[in-house]
Design brief:
Order of helices and strands: HEHHHEHHH
Number of helices: 7
Number of domains: 2
Shape: rod-shaped
Strand content: under 5%
Distance between the termini: 52 Å
Oligomer: single chain
Strand order of the largest sheet: 1-2
Length: about 130
C-alpha cells in the first residue's frame, strides 16, 4: 500500500502541527504534496481571489475538517470512537461515561462478592491457606 493510499484510507484531518488551524498541512498530507507548496497555493489564492472568498473557504474547511488524532488509529473500534467524539463531543463524553459506569458496576460486584458474609476469603487469609 502506498503512502498516499494509507493517508486517504485514514481520512482527511486538520494537522495538529499546522501554523493556522492546520488546514494546509492536513491537505498536503492527504494529497501527498509538500506543505510549502500547499501554503504557497493558498497564499496565491488569497492574493488573487481576495481575502473574503478564500478566507471564508479556509475557515469553513477548518471548521468542517476533524482534528488529526493524537495517536494513530489501530482498529475499527478506535476509529469509530474517534469519529463519534470528533463529530460530537457530547456523544463521545456520553460514551466514555457509559464505559466508566459499566466498569464501576463490575468493580462493585467484585467488591460485594469478596466482602460478603458468605465469602471465606478472610478465613483463608487468617488461616494461611492458599487460594
Amino acid at each position: 500500500m502506498t503512502r498516499n493510499t494509507e493517508k486517504q484510507d485514514r481520512g482527511l484531518y486538520r494537522s495538529r502541527r499546522g501554523i493556522i488551524f492546520g488546514v494546509c498541512r492536513g491537505l498536503a498530507e492527504y494529497f501527498d504534496i509538500s506543505v510549502t507548496g500547499a501554503r504557497i497555493i493558498t497564499f496565491i489564492a488569497f492574493l488573487f481571489g481576495g481575502f473574503w472568498p478564500v478566507g471564508v473557504v479556509y475557515i469553513v474547511a477548518a471548521l468542517i475538517m476533524k482534528v488529526e488524532p493524537v495517536l494513530p488509529l489501530t482498529s475499527a473500534d478506535d476509529a469509530e470512537f474517534y469519529n463519534s467524539y470528533a463529530h460530537s463531543s457530547t456523544m463521545g463524553i456520553q460514551r466514555l461515561k457509559r464505559t466508566f459506569d459499566n466498569l464501576d458496576r463490575r468493580i462493585r460486584r467484585m467488591e460485594d462478592i469478596v466482602t460478603s458474609r458468605e465469602s471465606d476469603w478472610e478465613r483463608r487469609l487468617n488461616d494461611g491457606e492458599r487460594v
